[in-house]
Specification:
The protein is mostly helical. The protein has 10 helices and 6 strands; from the N terminus they run E-E-H-H-H-H-H-H-H-E-E-H-H-E-E-H. A hairpin with a 7-residue loop joins strand 3 and strand 4. InterPro entries: Lgt.
Length: 308
């Protein structure tokens, strides 16, 4: 894994972020696919630039805000000797010693939650649709292939940069699906390669949407509903392998300690980590339900009637 591409410079800059490069590539590919699809559907391709821009803006804002929600209990904690559980992090850039700070986390280069970016980006785009009185269903159907490809590339960025969205430890040695994690934990810990798993699945439903479904003349909103169900199901299942914290634990949470066991692995990586649904799983369930309601209530498996 390579976090940065080192570039010598007199200012001490660490180099190009590999995650940022792949994220930029994702948006560039999306900006290539989207206008072509809008044109094919006889929609206005001139809207694509604004849709991409608002998607990027919403992604960055929403992904950061949802990341803060994920680590909320680490930022606002009760520390003896410090006045104000909430006021201290608000007034100090780094927050409590040894804990992530609110402002330092919000404006750092890392820490992005995809669903936050998806929901906020969709909000911005929806407001744009409303303002220009565009046919939301038709445009949403046109957007989802580009969105799927962008997500697939972005997840590869997560893996290459080693941002930590790996799975729990496993004894399996499956090429591509398992890799040895070298980071904050002892070297050589085999973990499930969840970023690449998600990327492979996303490339799969991109291929389905791009090369099959969009040519089937399904009813309006059909591709959008299918995307919600496909992506929501994929993320829901992948989260069972992810080392993520449960919002409402159903089982006793594991102790997150870095005390190696006899095999040299940290204790919390040696067992099955899942003990309740994570934030992303609850959002996944909501997306699946929304897509299913749209799909079955609107009978969106049917095709539009074409005039003779």
């Amino acid at each position: 894994m390579l976090d940065r591409i080192p570039i010598p410079n007199p200012f001490g800059w660490g180099g190009l972020s590999t995650f940022s490069l792949l994220m930029m590539l994702a948006f560039l590919v999306g900006s290539y696919i989207l206008p072509k699809e809008l044109e094919r559907r006889k929609l206005e391709p001139s809207h694509s630039d604004w849709l991409i821009f608002l998607g990027i803006l919403g992604t960055l804002i929403g992904a950061k805000v949802f990341f803060i929600f994920e680590i909320w209990d680490q930022i606002f904690i009760q520390v003896p000797g410090y006045d104000g559980r909430y006021s201290y992090p608000l007034l100090h850039w780094e927050g409590f010693p040894g804990q992530p700070g609110l402002w330092s986390s919000l404006f750092s280069g890392g820490g992005l939650v995809f669903y936050g970016g998806l929901l906020c980006g969709w909000l911005f785009v929806t407001l744009y649709f409303k303002y220009y009185k565009l046919d939301m269903g038709s445009y949403f159907d046109a957007i989802v292939p580009a969105l799927s490809m962008g997500y697939a590339i972005g997840r590869l960025g997560c893996f290459v940069s080693g941002d930590g969205c790996y799975g729990f430890a496993t004894d399996a040695r499956i090429p591509i699906l398992v890799f040895e994690f070298h980071g904050a934990h002892p070297s050589g810990v085999p973990v499930w390669n969840t970023p690449v798993m998600e990327s492979i699945i996303a490339f799969g439903y991109f291929a389905y949407l791009q090369y099959y479904a969009r040519f089937q003349n399904f009813r309006k909103w059909s591709l959008g509903a299918q995307f919600l169900m496909l992506h929501g199901t994929a993320r829901l299942l992948i989260e069972f392998l992810r080392v993520n914290k449960a919002v409402i634990p159903f089982l006793e949470p594991p102790q997150l300690v870095n005390i190696p066991d006899s095999s040299g692995n940290p204790a919390f990586l040696t067992g099955y980590y899942w003990h309740g649904f994570s934030q992303s799983q609850y959002i996944s369930i909501a997306l699946i339900l929304a897509g299913a309601i749209m799909f079955f209530k609107g009978k969106l498996w049917q095709k539009e009637e074409t005039s003779a």
